[in-house]
Amino acid sequence: MDLKEGSSGAPIRERELGFYERFRVSLHDLGYYNNVSIIARYSNATKTLNSWPQSIFRGFSHAVQKHPELSTTVARDADGTLYFQRLPTVDLEQLVTFKQLQDIEGEDVDAKLITLSTAENNRGFENTSTTPSWRAIALRESSNSDSFRVAFVWHHVIGDGRSGLAVHQSLLEAFRLSEDDVDCKSNRPTSVTSLDLRRVPSSANPLFTSMEQMLPNSTAPATVTSPLLGRKWAGNAYNDKSPIVTELGHIRIPASSVQNILTQCRKHSTTMTALLQAIVAKALLEQVGVSYDRIRTAVAVSLRRFFDPKLGIDDSVMGLWISTYTTEFHKTQFHPRTDAVELDVLWQLSQQNTAQINSVVANGGREVEIMGLMGVNDYSAAVKARVGQPRDNSFGLTNLGVFGAASIEEGHGRITLDDMFFSQSCHSNGAAFQICIVTVQGGDMNIVFNWQKGIILGEEIDGVTSGVKDLMGQIASRE
């Protein structure tokens, strides 16, 4: 890791914000959407724990050097133009805090993670013109544990969900390099010991550009009237009554079940995302009562695959490059006579979802739903004008897929990343609830539900989570 002594000076003006970045700033400042978070567990980490907390600061020093977004703030010109500015140094002591996992409320580890995520997702960012819009909590487990966790929480303006994976990948790289440099006798790093790792220089790497510049020929697809008849359920209407409170629910799917489900997905020529979309739709339609006939889902899709490879944008970097595609489901699509037929219906719908995903990918980014926001002049006014109106989408789904950490090369430390917990704040102006999914290679799948308090009934969301868990269990048990 190449670090130089922190420098002083004024912030450097960078590029203006793109349309979607401006939209995200508006949502945050209105209190409609706070942040995204990923909590990762690092195991076989005895050396890293022995040099605590210096090892954590060193890890984030490495991440700051790699990702310029961690050094930036959002400033505003006199005429209201928003732009990024790069700070000369980053004060990690201001951004990284330390806690004991046992001090967080909860009967077990997963309950504690829900408690922590709920608290963080209900906190926005202050002084975003002078302070980077991210924070982290390093969590030590019991005294005899060789594991610890890091919660990384960030403003959507600096990155999408895959950006969080990129930061944790950078932390893992740094921890492994640091373990190589630890002197076995002193348990202290053998290099860069003279540096103050609590205040580090900002990254010298350039900021990547906005999505509309990456995809200059993209347009929003034409609006299509739903072919499905009946009344759509989308929770209660848009509501911005203060305080806007995020609530979370969670399902953990064991690693063995994840592998069995993936095998079934391959057998039926579909994907985990497509299957989960169908499963959640079925579970929800069983909860909403006879007054409703259909639902509408929005599934997140990364735009990175559509960029010119020469630009160097892959899953290892930070940036906000995401859109959605929508699908509708009707109750009549889920009318089985036996359990076997019930699962057959899910596989058929999952295959239809996969065909839609493939169509989105084959389109090559020429039609991108999020581009429909480009023509809006005042995002705050546009969002507030919708208060009291019905929501467009019943639920949103973001699957970050499988986090595959780089293999441990010869000569590198043994530390591994073996669990992830992905969540975000509620969308006051969005779907009735959101589902956040991430899996670590060879590990468990964590499914987190988030919703705005008062928008969906407790028994409804409990019924959905129970239904999803049951259906995933049925599929996992199949040969």
From TrEMBL:
It comes from the Eukaryota. Pfam families: AATase. One of its GO terms (molecular function) is N-acetyltransferase activity. This is Alcohol acetyltransferase. It comes from Arthrobotrys musiformis.
